[in-house]
Specification:
Number of strands: 0
Oligomer: single chain
Radius of gyration: 23 Å
Length: 294
Amino acid sequence: MAQAHHDSHDANVYYVPHGSRWPVIASVALFTTMIGFAFWLNDEPVGKIVFFLGIAFLAAILFNWFRDVIRESLRGFYNKQVDTSFRMGMVWFIFSEVMFFAAFFGALFYARTFALPWLTGEGQKVATHMLLWPGFTGGWPSNGPGDIGGVYNTIPAWGLPLLNTLILLSSGVTVTIAHHALKAGHRKQLLLFLGMTVMLGALFLYFQAHEYLHAYKELNLTLGSGIYGSTFFMLTGFHGAHVTLGTIMLAIIWFRCAAGHFNRENHFAFEAVAWYWHFVDVVWLGLFLFVYVL
């Protein structure tokens, strides 16, 4: 009876799935991942295993959860109210991501604009310098007192970072062209430019991995390189994680477009991923300017 009611849902009524087990199971997977990561950071041998088991568990849950959402959408369960709810949910999600990165940009701004001038006695802050840390020397980029982590070199902005900036800006153009192609009903153009966006995202990640290897092996720039190293890798690393997630989502949307899941009027899943990708682009522009250039 429950299945019959599920399949005969009135499209004029706001659809609410009943008895979904995914939120509870996803919470267990996230908790497992967090515990594994905590153990890993504390050099417990089991930590890495538990962490990756949690990640695999979470990926399997998300796959099945979104599979159910896609099926509900294709069966026509979602009306305009549900569409509005999805849009508002995506807006608030992106807003939370903005706040997430704002915290790290804020840490970078505070360290450069306030903390270091106070500690080094720049400008009129000599008295503060003498009070807080008379023996502290050095400016930005700083690796702290005593060269924490050793002497390092920074990554020039006009090499790989500039190339990655051009790649991400290009991907923003290709996903926009793909969106217009979808609304115009040009299926081949849609698949071509959306596929180009996926490849550009993967290319960005390849160059970022190359940059990280270069930083660790040749520049001695690591997470342990004082405030500069920690903020650099936290900002670029979390951004890379978002690019990875966005590239995966774009690839899934490509397969859904190839399967004919969207039309000119109903394609919010595509729009949501496009919004997310543009957000990733904007964050990188801020990173390029404040981390690499300035």
